Amino acid sequence: MAVEMLSYIDKRSPIHQLTGATKLLCFIMWSFAAMLTYDTRILVGLLIVSLVVFKVSKIKLSEVSFVLAFILIFLLINNVAIYLFSPLEGVKIYGTEHVLFKLGGRYNLTLEQLFYQCNITLKYLTVIPAALLFIVTTHPSEFASSLNKIGVSYRIAFSVAIALRYIPDIQRDYRNIALSQQARGLDMSRKEKLLRRVKNAVSIILPLILSSLERIETISNVMELRGFGKNKKRTWYSARSFKPSDYIALILIALILVTSLAVTYHNGNRFYNPFK
């Protein structure tokens, strides 16, 4: 945990120069484009574009590797669960059945099921880079102003900004508490048995929860003393006006969304079927 997870990473890139509202709207349209289609050709194209944009952002893979690994593990579990609960979903969708391996009962591994779950995986891989970029290239205060700009109540927007700001604080507190406990002889390394490590982790989590509650109370009192929420509107110090690059980004993502929907629904079916 030497690198703070899901926190703002300040760099000079075209993605960082876009306003928070632009990135939020682009992320929403990008998610719609990826989630509404099962056309493999479109998903592969979107994946390539997302990887190119990730490269342009100058964000290093090592800076988001921990979160990315966690998401990929979840993706693996999701794929296993899909197969266990619906092993013939691909057969129902594509109308054919090409059995690769006979595993017994309805749990036969079919080419259609693999293709269907490949599309599910592509959906995640398409959205994940965009989601990570949106979080690590948008300052929390600017993100709050962006939410408020598109119609979200500033009370809710400010709460989201505080939550995002609090992520690095939690990680920093965890490191400090863990180092303090290790200095007192608490071993969290792999040398200890698993049950012992879990028990030792509890001695870190409890002080972390107590310190978090204390910080929440302090912030709440400060906001109340300053009259937060009294007025219906507020101004934002971090708000930025739109520039030509923002309009260009919005137009490009909107064109991608429209193209994706047009190709997906031109024959009334969201699924690209290579088996017919």
UniProtKB/TrEMBL annotation:
User: Which domain of life does this protein belong to?
Assistant: Bacteria
**Which Pfam families is this protein grouped with?**
CbiQ
Q: Where in the cell is it found?
A: Membrane
Q: Its principal location?
A: membrane
- Annotated membrane-spanning segments are 27-54, 66-85, 114-136, 247-266
Keywords tagged on the record:
Membrane, Transmembrane, Transmembrane helix
Q: How does the protein associate with the membrane?
A: Multi-pass membrane protein
**What's an example GO cellular component term for this entry?**
plasma membrane
Q: What is this protein called?
A: Cobalt transport protein
Native species: Neobacillus massiliamazoniensis
Record gene name = cbiQ
